[in-house]
Design goal:
- Keywords: Cell membrane, Membrane, Transmembrane, Transmembrane helix.
- Pfam families: ABC2_membrane_5.
- The chain is mainly alpha-helical and 241 residues long.
- It has 13 helices and no strands.
- The chain has one domain.
- Helix 2 runs antiparallel to helix 4 and helix 4 (50-68) runs antiparallel to helix 10.
- It is globular.
Length: 241
């Protein structure tokens, strides 16, 4: 699996994909956090990074499918998937290597945003007047969100030979899992609305972003990732049916 991970990650770094993804993410978040008057930290007057953590999921919703769309779709279109599957590797190792490479690239895009935290920390009055616990929780939430989006993208790429179709399916899937259940919950009232919203990512992401690391939220994310990767494995194994 490590060999697949290294190969895929090096392929990303050897192509414009990694630099475009990281560049677009940083430019988009930078504009919302520092430039646009309706969301700028400088105009908002509060020492927090809520703008970053509100906008990043929507940016990830497009960027992560752009990373994952080539993983299996390109292999199928080029005819190299058969060669890969005949290597002494299990389906789980192939999926795990490709998945971790995509997730690692998505997390790499988050690293430069630590400069935003440092800047807000320094600009706070008094200095350091920022809720660090909530910030750590929000970064953890973004990492878990990226993990789910990457798993959705891997599954979408496995079911088609066309990268564009894989991208579109992944975007729709990420949108439905992130925002769809909240929209559906708004139709209902009371307990039913609560339970429907709990099926989506947004409710769990909001809880973690408050700095409340609940085992139920972690279990939700890990279970969702495991289920999606298992679905990808079933798609690959369907070649034997």
């Amino acid at each position: 699996m490590y060999s697949i991970l290294r190969k895929e990650f090096n392929a990303f770094l050897s192509s414009p994909v990694a630099y475009v993804v990281i560049g677009v993410f940083l430019v988009a978040t930078g504009l919302f956090v520092w430039v646009f008057p309706d969301s700028s930290v400088l105009d908002y007057g509060y020492a927090d990074l809520q703008t970053l953590f509100n906008m990043a999921p929507w940016i990830f919703l497009f960027l992560i499918p752009a990373i994952t769309m080539r993983t299996f779709a390109e292999e199928k279109k080029a005819g190299t998937i058969e060669l890969l599957l005949t290597r002494p590797l299990t389906d789980g190792q192939i999926i795990g290597g490709k998945y971790l490479a995509c997730l690692l690239l998505a997390l790499l895009a988050l690293v430069p945003t630590l400069l935003y935290y440092y800047s807000v920390y320094q600009l706070g009055s008094p200095q350091g007047n920022i809720d660090s616990a909530a910030t750590v929780g929000s970064y953890l939430g973004l990492a878990l969100l990226a993990a789910v989006f990457a798993a959705i993208g891997i599954l979408a790429s496995a079911i088609t030979r066309d990268q564009i179709i894989a991208f579109l399916v992944a975007v729709v899937g990420c949108f439905l899992v992130y925002s769809g259940f909240d929209s559906l919950a708004s139709v209902f009232d009371g307990t039913l609305a609560y339970y429907i919203s709990q099926l989506g990512i947004a409710a769990h992401y909001r809880d973690i972003s408050k700095g409340l690391i609940d085992s139920r939220d972690l279990l939700y994310f890990f279970s969702l990732v495991a289920g999606l990767l298992l679905g990808t494995r079933l798609v690959l194994q369907s070649r034997n049916w």
